[in-house]
Specification:
With 95 residues, this protein is mainly β. Helices cover 14% and strands 43% of the residues.
Length: 95
């Protein structure tokens, strides 16, 4: 079973997507955890993918935000528009 995902609040917006704080909760309600989620529209997929590739090459480097998954995810936003998502560790006081 997969954890449930709940959008908590927006974190920011950039040229090729927006960031939000997402809470994941296990099916039994235990051990909730938070990630920053970047969402981009289909027309910006190549930029998101390139960012993902760069961050993947920098995996385990100190002071570099890490991706949380091994690939991008595809979904549909609240308006029925296809989006691509990249989950990253949440740096609460980062910039």
């Amino acid at each position: 079973m997969f954890p449930s995902m709940e959008f908590m609040k927006p974190l920011g917006k950039g040229s090729y997507g927006s960031y939000g704080l997402v809470k994941f909760t296990n099916p039994d309600g235990s051990n909730p955890y938070y990630h920053a989620m970047k969402s981009s529209y289909a027309q910006d997929f190549e930029y998101l993918f390139k960012e993902f590739q760069i961050l993947s090459k920098l995996r385990n480097c100190p002071r570099i935000v890490q991706t949380s998954w091994t690939s991008l995810s595809r979904g549909v936003n609240d308006y029925g528009i296809r989006v691509y998502r990249m989950s990253m560790e949440y740096a609460a006081s980062g910039s």
